[in-house]
Write a structure and sequence with these properties.
By secondary structure, the protein is mainly β. Helix content is 3%, strand content 47%. Keywords: Signal.
Length: 351
């Protein structure tokens, strides 16, 4: 099939709003249900927080990546409803539920603060810092610059671990894993418990995702492939389980999101950044092999040069009754899609 591109202004994403890049949107691009209010600088990565008492009041947390950036909260209509304190180049963000601080369970958003070489921990939904100004990461390393982050909640004891990536690193042990802890006085801390992960050396490792139910970590070794590892540091298994998607991307393989149809089945969606599409793989693997990942579909989206994405299967009400997929786009915005529109394209590709 011949792919046609058009250079247009799309939903306010003009060439000027995208910096020097002209917005190239495919004619068959999936239109978003919502485009958020623009941020001041540069959107990079979103995460979805599900409101435990009313899912229709869930929020999207997104990073504004600049020296005077921060975390922003959006409602399901794309309106900015909150902001963290100023952060020095926050890169990626992830969310976990029930971190125990002073005997109380607290939902948290954890982001990398690249220019300070720290991770930052904020309570949700109020985006208040609970980390004594941040926790240093990659201490003792020549290259630090934290970028990617994903949170793993161990089912057996509900302990929460942060998997952190960086701008550059060694070919082995590129990722460091930290256990989030109660540091006393209502504050959170973190302790490094593991160093693992292969790296090709081609570009960087930024996009990381954790599958709590399957106990796995997926991350993008950009311009090389998608790697898979065991998530639980107590398993003491640092062997690479899978490497896939090596011939599927135009250039950078970036943001990763995992849609869960059941406890074990669903989809892995990975941004084909320069093609403005998302590549879809089976979460459970294929042919009875959980580490075999054939390409199921390529979904063209309205996003431009997408770095990060997240997805939920939770009924958020309104147009998101079967879930919401959110992705960053140039133009300082995030795009929301109702899951049904993506599922239809996946189903069509399977026929």
């Amino acid at each position: 099939m011949k792919t046609t591109y058009i250079a247009i202004a799309f939903l306010g994403l003009t060439a000027a709003s995208c910096g020097s890049k002209l917005a190239a949107v495919r004619k068959d691009a999936l239109k978003p249900a919502v485009v958020t209010q623009p941020l001041p600088h540069d959107t990079d990565d979103p995460a979805i927080w599900i409101n435990p008492t009313d899912a229709t009041k869930s929020i999207i947390i997104g990073t504004d990546k600049d020296t005077d950036g921060g975390l922003y909260a959006f409602d399901l209509n794309g309106k900015i409803i909150g902001k963290s304190e100023v952060l020095m180049r926050p890169n990626n963000v992830d969310i976990a539920y029930g971190l125990v601080i002073d005997g109380k369970k607290t939902d948290v958003a954890v982001t990398t603060e690249r220019e300070n070489n720290k991770i930052r921990i904020f309570s949700l939904p109020d985006l208040k810092p609970i980390d004594n100004g941040g926790i240093p990461v990659f201490e003792g390393e020549l290259m630090r610059d934290p970028m990617g982050i994903a949170l793993y909640t161990r089912p057996s004891d509900q302990k929460i671990f942060a998997v952190v990536g960086r701008k550059e690193g060694p070919v082995n042990g590129y990722l460091w894993q930290y256990e989030l802890t109660d540091a006393g006085n209502g504050k959170a801390g973190a302790t490094v418990v593991r160093k693992f992960g292969n790296y090709s050396g081609k570009k960087e490792i930024e996009a990381i995702a954790v599958d709590n139910e399957l106990g796995t970590i997926l991350y993008c070794d950009e311009q090389f492939g998608i790697r898979k590892y065991v998530a639980d540091p107590a398993a003491k298994n640092d062997n690479e389980l899978a490497l896939f998607g090596q011939k599927d991307f135009k250039a950078d393989n970036e943001g990763i999101a995992i849609y869960k149809k059941s406890a074990t089945e669903g989809y892995i969606l990975v941004s084909n950044q320069q093609a403005n599409t998302f590549m879809v793989y089976p979460r459970e693997g294929a042919n009875g092999n959980p580490n075999e990942y054939p390409l199921l579909a390529e979904i063209p989206t309205s996003t431009i040069e997408c770095d990060g994405a997240d997805v939920t299967n939770v009924n958020l009400g309104g147009q998101f009754q079967n879930g919401l997929f959110v992705a960053m786009s140039n133009g300082m915005t995030f795009h929301y899609y109702n899951w049904d529109s993506i599922q239809q394209l996946i189903d069509a590709a399977k026929k």
